[in-house]
Specification:
Layout (H helix, E strand, L loop, with lengths): L1 H18 L3 H21 L5
Helix pairs in contact: 1-2
Length: 48
């Protein structure tokens, strides 16, 4: 779930970077995506 959100944020970041929309906001979105991906990998998979 978190990895999907991070992937969507990275795609939005790339689209914003190409379209030159919201320069400051683009970098904030990238930082949020990196943080979400890091949390996902640090937690690891939960055992059932």
């Amino acid at each position: 779930m978190l990895l999907t959100i991070a992937a969507i944020l990275v795609v939005l970041w790339l689209l914003g970077l190409v379209a030159h929309v919201g320069a400051g906001l683009i970098h904030i979105v990238l930082v949020v995506a990196i943080i979400i991906a890091a949390i996902h990998f640090l937690r690891g998979r939960k055992r059932v």
